[in-house]
Design brief:
Layout: E1 7-9, E2 13-17, H1 24-34, E3 38-40, E4 43-45, E5 59-61, H2 64-72, E6 76-82, E7 85-90, H3 91-99, E8 103-107, H4 110-119, E9 124-129, H5 133-143, H6 148-162, E10 170-173, H7 177-192, E11 198-200
Parallel strand pairs: 2-8, 2-9, 3-8, 4-5, 9-10
Antiparallel strand pairs: 1-11, 4-7, 6-7
The structure holds adenosine-5'-diphosphate (ADP) and guanosine-5'-monophosphate (5GP).
Amino acid sequence: MTSSFTVSREPLLVVVSGPSGVGKSTVVDRVLARSPHIAASVSVTTRPPRGAERDGFEYFFVTREEFDRRRDAGDFLEWAEVHGNCYGTPAAFVESKLAAGTSIVLEIDVQGGMSVRARFPGAVLIFLFPPDLETLRTRLDGRATDDEEVIRRRLENARRELARFDGYDYIVVNDDVERCAEDCLAIIRAESLREERSAIV
Ligand code: ADP
Ligand code: 5GP
């Protein structure tokens, strides 16, 4: 009789949300760099590129007409209007990665997080908190790619966004990037080991 077991694990759909400037991109980049089994989805947006952002890397940049056409065609897993611009997650990419066994991270707002939860009840939702509001302001200023009015609007929205973590599974404070990425990886690792995501083959 064989004495070894092979355990297969279902891939995860992970949502990372939090106010603008809290460090979502920075932390998700660290998580991806540390785990070859996780990929990130690239969203479609009507927002203009910021700083050195390139089409197809940080986002797919489209016109409002193109966005509406794709939304009406059912191309998005979820979509939302945030800070006056539209953002959507391409469904085909996410579904093909999950089908191939790769876990996916979506860096999306809380409206998107709740849509994902409704459609994929097993999704893992992580909410990033800044250590305090002053630090959030410093990070938004430090990014130096938005004008004054954009920063003001994002800070105003941040207070509202910070009160909307209740549908989330985990709260992680982004004080130190490495520690925050560590915490996210620990969550992902533990979630992927859950009994309901495992099969003995
Ligand atoms: P978000 O994706 O949430 O809008 P970013 O990842 O663009 O935020 O981060 C906003 C700014 O804060 C960037 O300049 C980034 O380098 C900086 N930042 C992110 N996390 C930290 C941290 N833990 N400590 C200091 N600066 C940080
Ligand atoms: P930014 O303009 O700073 O890149 O993003 C603004 C907000 O939009 C952030 O909260 C970000 O997480 C969110 N966002 C980015 N892509 C998507 C998406 O595809 N769907 C949703 N719902 N929100 C998104």
